[in-house]
Design a protein that fits this description.
Blueprint lengths: L4 H4 L12 H13 L5 E6 L5 H13 L13 H8 L5 E5 L6 H11 L9 E6 L6 H12 L5 E7 L7 H4 L3 E5 L4 H14 L6 H11 L3 H14 L6 H8 L4 H12 L3 H13 L4 H21 L13 H8 L4 H16 L7 H13 L7 H17 L10 H10 L30 H12 L16 E6 L2 E6 L2 H7 L2 H15 L4 E6 L9 H19 L1
Parallel strand pairs: 1-4, 1-5, 2-3, 3-4, 7-8
Antiparallel strand pairs: 6-7
Helix pairs in contact: 3-4, 5-6, 8-9, 8-10, 9-10, 9-11, 10-11, 12-13, 12-14, 13-17, 14-15, 14-16, 16-17, 16-18, 20-22
């Protein structure tokens, strides 16, 4: 019968335990010097070697020929414990034996001397699952056990163990195993099992294990069974249904470009390939966390990265975001992932999340506004704005003489109307004309200018057709200076002409600096000025 890799390669000596040298060396010294305690508490995250170390300790205290604190694994006692036939070494699951009656039975049996080995050992796994009454029943024998009795408690949730239990045990904390140590162990196991494991695949599996050796071996077992030939990183991604380093970095790159169309297309490919949406969001959150660490700590944060993306890719992406934007992305992704439990359509939730990430203007909450302001502040401080196209000599000469931006061509005398004449009626244009033009222009431009052409009522730029021309009314002088560029005006003319079916000219107007000369308010002000002059003359 096939045996899982994590069972087949379970450590048999303290030297085989990976990444827990501080714990194993202390236990070896205690056994070698004969200073073994009566109760131990092993705590740490899953898959770090707590139960394995407990079994090794049980063998070591009963071994007939210990070797420098390690069990020999050849004597009758070691073989009986490995085979599970030793009645004096008992492993108890506290999750299913958590009542006070179970502990009372244990306490009654513990007083009897061992029949096969030197010490009777009780290994209580997941001890935090015991009830309060069971803990109280365990206290007395745990404090003053017989000389032949040894308790080894193991738990992943130390905060649930009462202080009265903690004070009666020697506590050993098992740390998360480093990715490099896990990858080295995976290469050893792969060599023993004739698995062609690539270094990149070993690093991916080590990262996904999150510090647990058992998880890493289980993932290796799964991936090795699903494919033949060399097991590389891409095959690991395909087998486990996750996006992968390049795809995750590509999605973040589109978010940086505010390319909602490209981000949704990439996500659609993930969905059609059967990628796990929860794992994809987790990778995106880890990458955002890495970028935030680099943004805060610089190159000193490289050792703290999770490995979701290569160091060079992470450094390149970090420069394209502000800290406020990264905080907003992280909160949006975590909020979307948390809503999966009660979601009716996970696909729609992720699509809405991606749209919010690519277009911050869709959200009016404080986090989105802070992200947009931080991006604007950074660009103003660095001057990182799109540069205008080079002008010809004829275009540059008037601007150089006046030291002002080049103004669009003034209307001819035939196009001018008398000041007191009513404004000509607006030209009939298709319904939703400016919405279509703004959307087309927005796709063709890059931030920050593209953000001015939002199809909303409060957008910085509003357009309309007046006297056969497309007039762009800018909310302020700053917007006017960025929009009033030949290449932008030409782009608007091209998109508007495609919708109207004819060639059309585009001009930009600064509403603050250049108010309408023939509007009702201007005529009223002009009348007031003229009337005051007449009164002054009569006086």
């Amino acid at each position: 019968m096939y045996q899982a890799l994590y069972r087949k390669y379970r450590p048999q000596t303290f030297d085989d335990v990976v990444g827990q040298r501080a714990v194993t060396q202390t236990l070896k010294n205690q056994i070698a010097t004969g200073r073994v305690g009566h109760a131990y508490l092993f705590t740490g995250s899953r898959g770090t070697g707590k139960t394995s170390s407990a079994k090794i300790l049980a063998k070591a205290v009963n071994c007939l020929a210990p070797q420098d604190g390690n069990p020999c694994n050849r004597c009758a006692a070691c073989r009986a414990i490995d085979e599970g036939s030793c009645m004096d070494v008992l492993e108890i699951d506290a999750a299913s034996n958590n009542g006070v009656d179970n502990v009372r039975d244990l306490r009654e049996d513990a007083v009897y001397t061992p029949s096969q080995v030197k010490m009777r050992v009780y290994i209580i796994d997941e001890v935090h699952m015991l009830s309060i009454s069971a803990f109280n029943a365990l206290l007395k024998i745990l404090e003053e056990p017989p000389k032949h009795l040894l308790f080894i408690l193991a738990t992943t949730e130390l905060h649930k163990v009462p202080a009265t239990i903690l004070s009666r045990c020697q506590r050993f904390s098992f740390r998360r195993i480093g990715a490099e140590e896990i990858a080295a162990r995976l290469q050893f196991v792969a060599y023993q099992e004739n698995i062609d494991l690539d270094d990149s695949a070993a690093r991916v599996l080590a990262r996904l294990a999150d510090g647990g050796m058992r998880d890493a071996l289980s993932l290796l077992d799964q991936c090795a069974s699903a494919t033949t030939g060399e097991l590389n990183a891409q095959r690991v991604y395909d087998c486990l249904g996750i996006a992968g380093i390049q795809d995750c970095a590509g999605l973040m790159d589109r978010i940086a470009q505010r390319d909602a169309k490209g981000a949704l297309a990439l996500y659609s490919r993930f969905y059609s390939e059967g990628k796990d949406l929860g794992a994809m969001l987790d990778e995106l959150a880890c990458l955002t966390r890495d970028l935030l660490v680099l943004k805060t700590a610089g190159n000193a944060g490289l050792p703290m990265l999770s490995g979701v993306a290569d160091d060079q890719d992470a450094l390149a992406l970090e420069k394209r975001f502000t800290a406020g934007e990264l905080m907003r992305i992280l909160e949006e992704v975590q909020s979307c992932a948390a809503g999966f439990v009660r979601s009716a359509s996970r696909r729609m939730d992720v699509e809405l999340c991606i749209l919010k990430l690519c277009q911050p203007e869709l959200s009016l909450d404080a986090q989105a506004l802070n992200a947009r302001l931080s991006r604007l502040e950074e660009r103003l401080s660095t001057g990182d704005f799109p540069q205008p196209a080079p002008q010809t000599a004829k275009q540059a000469a008037p601007a150089a003489q006046k030291n002002v931006p080049t103004e669009p061509a003034k209307p001819t005398e035939a196009e001018k109307s008398e000041p007191d004449e009513p404004a000509s009626p607006a030209e009939e244009v298709p319904l939703g004309f400016w919405t279509e033009v703004a959307a087309a222009v927005r796709k063709a431009l890059s931030p920050p200018v593209s953000g001015f052409f939002a199809a909303t009522a409060n957008a910085p730029v509003q357009g309309a057709v007046e006297k056969g021309k497309v007039v762009l009314r800018c909310a302020n002088t700053f917007t006017y200076e960025l929009v009033n560029k030949p290449e932008i005006l030409s782009l608007v003319s091209q998109k508007a002409g495609a919708i109207l079916g004819r060639r059309v000219e585009t001009i930009a107007v600064d509403q603050l600096a250049k108010p309408a000369q023939n509007g009702p308010m201007e005529r009223l002000l002009r009348f007031g000025r003229d009337h005051s002059e007449i009164v002054h003359i009569q006086e």
